[in-house]
Specification:
Chain A has 137 residues and is an all-alpha fold. Chain A is built from 5 helices and no strands. In chain A, helix 1 runs antiparallel to helix 2, helix 2 packs parallel to helix 5 and helix 4 runs antiparallel to helix 5. Chain B has a domain of 218 residues. The chains are: A mainly alpha (137), B mainly alpha (502).
């Protein structure tokens, strides 16, 4: 990859923007179009682009495979545990209104946390899928 | 204080049923080691079984349980809705999973490499989540979501079989399973387009005014084919023999007992509750579609089973025939017929899981399950083959086993409609079942193994594999004698299903 100067420079410029855009889609999801799934795909695409252009070893130093698996589990756990917080605080499963004193603020907090869990899992699963294919000889 | 905690817990049972395995799935991966992941999966699966037991007894006492997810009221939000039929299926699925997991410890240690074991149990927990979710939910789209969870994890479980052929089988299952899931999604989508709702009870109220439209007919047909693919009804069965034969032994015991049963439940739910018996069977004559397929399925699959050399394949084809019996019961559209079909869900889960487990024990000791590798094992592995014989007798339908109870109700229902040839057909095809299980018994008990072959050296399987096997065998004899629980629940479920169409 030493020769593709244009490709490397453009990617170096683009990848931070891709990740930033993913974060925007993630955390703006409860006001506008977006949410955890879309954001996770964009975030994962940033890592995959980095891996394609700079090599598998570079991307695996940034995101080692065991960490990627851990993050995907953490996302599911976050989702399920935020749901469990509902019954703990006197509501039903996935009821966000009881999370805070103000039900509207509770709904905001709940959906942001849930979507964060979705985003983490989707981004890390995308990356793990890329690893699974790229590591084959 | 403790009283109110118990009451809170009871109120949340419906949610706990699905969340526990969902939470266990990532925990299995985080434990990192096969043994610890197994322990987590086992404990959670037994908790799910107790939960299902609690739900069933609650339903039998107080009637339908409804649970609003996220506190959103029913037609808008997703609701879990539990009546006799789905609490019964929840019990079957979680029970089979719990017993198969005890069996899995030693069997998986032989068949799946260590670095994949924690992921294996994670996939198992996701599969359990999906199957329980499909069964418990009262929302048509939610069925599709859980169907995808269970299907994707089943493809993974099948692909972990010890031969490379398992990959081909898993891929074939993936292609056909995805087609099936897509058809179900299209069917649900068309219903949504016509009625604007996804809640099953709400759909049942809103379909009748628009039932004479092409859109509803198309939804009806798409769902029939999609669910047919998922439950491997002839001619949509091509994925099943490979998937059952190549999957790891414990997985076969689990999915043979659980996953096609859930698909049969989905059929019941959509055609009796959502479309309603009077529309689906009274107007569109759905039974004229189901019954010929069921009869062909029973006859052809039983005959194919006789000619298989791999015993796991014999049992896989036999499973296809048994699905035929369930569908036959459903297509009689009477309380007796439905009772027979629903009881057979439970009974077949018991006997087929036991049979696949005993083959798993043979595979553990001998490393192969072709007919020849069973030579002389009747004496070398008496407990394993003894369990096989009881399971086989049950499959044939010998009195004092569960198989007899289901056949009895099917024959009774056929005679009730005045269809004598059908009753004769059920008896005759049971004789074909005798033919294919007898081959195994003959080889295992009346032939001696060649000197130096693996089966000549074989010893009895480990206790941890025999315990769940014999628990299933004992259950299949117990429920063959005392039918008050199984037939009682099935009868009430059948009455509810037929009643909801009126």
């Amino acid at each position: 990859m030493q020769h593709h100067v244009v490709l490397r420079i453009v990617c170096k410029l683009l990848i931070p923007l891709i990740l930033l855009f993913a974060l925007y889609v993630q955390f703006h999801g409860d006001y506008g179009p977006g949410g955890g799934f879309q954001a996770g795909v964009i975030f994962g695409a940033g890592f995959i682009l980095y891996g394609i252009v700079f090599g598998l070893r570079s991307v695996q130093t940034v995101a080692p495979p065991p960490v990627v698996v851990m993050v995907s589990c953490a996302g599911v756990l976050l989702y399920a545990l935020v749901g469990v917080a509902g019954p703990m605080m006197g509501g039903n499963y996935l009821d966000y209104s009881v999370l805070l004193d103000d039900p509207v603020a509770g709904q905001h907090l709940g959906i942001i946390l849930i979507e964060l869990g979705v985003g983490l899992t989707v981004a890390s699963t995308m990356t793990a899928l890329f690893y699974a294919f790229a590591e084959r000889r | 204080m403790s009283g109110s905690v118990a009451a809170d817990l009871l109120a949340q049972l419906a949610a706990i049923q699905v969340i526990l395995p969902l939470l266990a799935a990532p925990v299995c991966v985080l434990t990192g080691r096969g043994g610890r992941a197994w322990a987590v999966a086992l404990v959670v699966s037994w908790c799910a079984f107790l939960t299902a037991w609690g739900l069933l007894s609650q339903v039998l006492d107080q009637g339908v349980i409804r649970y609003e997810l996220g506190g959103w009221a029913a037609p808008w939000g997703i609701e879990y809705r539990i009546d006799e039929i789905n609490s019964f299926v929840l019990l079957i699925v979680s029970g089979v999973s719990s017993l198969a997991l005890i069996f899995a410890r030693t069997s998986v240690a032989r068949e799946v490499p260590e670095e994949k074991r924690s992921l294996f149990y994670c996939a198992w927990m996701l599969c359990l989540t999906g199957l329980l979710g499909i069964t418990i939910t009262g929302d048509a789209f939610n069925v599709f979501v859980f169907l995808e969870i269970s299907s994707l994890s089943t493809y993974v479980l099948v692909s972990l079989g010890s031969h490379r052929r398992a990959l081909v089988s898993a891929f074939r299952y993936l292609v056909l399973g995805t087609v099936g899931a897509t058809f179900i999604l299209i069917g649900v989508g068309l219903l949504y387009a016509m009625t604007g709702t996804l809640n099953m009870v709400d759909l049942a109220e809103r379909i009748p005014p628009v039932s004479q439209t092409r859109t509803v007919y198309a939804a009806f047909a798409f769902l029939a084919v999609g669910i047919g693919l998922k439950m491997a009804l002839f001619p949509f069965h091509a994925w099943l023999p490979g998937a059952y034969a190549e999957a790891p032994s414990a997985v076969t015991a689990f999915i043979a007992g659980a996953s096609t049963k859930v698909a049969v439940y989905v059929l019941l739910r959509f055609y009796f509750t959502v479309f309603g018996a009077s529309f689906a069977f009274g107007e569109l004559r759905f039974e004229l579609f189901l019954m010929p397929l069921a009869l062909i399925c029973i006859l052809i699959m039983s005959l194919i089973a006789v000619y298989q050399n791999d015993i796991k394949r014999t049992l896989a084809y036999s499973s296809l025939a048994q699905i035929g019996y369930m569908v036959l019961g459903i297509s009689l559209v009477s309380v007796a017929g439905l009772t027979g079909g629903i009881v057979h869900l439970f009974n077949h889960a018991l006997m087929k899981s036991a049979l696949f487990m005993s083959l798993g024990c043979v595979f553990y000791r001998v490393g192969s399950i072709s007919l020849a590798s069973l030579e002389g094992l009747g004496r070398r592995m008496p407990w394993t083959l003894g369990a096989f014989v009881v399971g086989a007798l049950s499959l044939v339908g010998v009195p004092m086993t569960v198989g007899f109870v289901s056949k009895w109700y099917l024959i009774f229902a056929a005679i009730d409609r005045g269809w004598w040839p059908l009753a004769v057909f059920v008896v005759l095809t049971s004789l074909i079942a005798l033919a294919y299980v007898w081959r195994v018994v003959e080889v295992a008990y009346f032939r001696t193994a060649r000197e130096g072959s693996a089966q000549a050296e074989a010893v009895e399987a480990p206790v941890l594999m025999l315990v769940p096997l014999w628990m299933l065998v004992a259950a299949s004899v117990y429920f063959g004698l005392d039918t008050s629980l199984t037939v009682g629940v099935a009868e009430r479920a059948a009455e509810t299903l037929l009643g909801s169409g009126r």
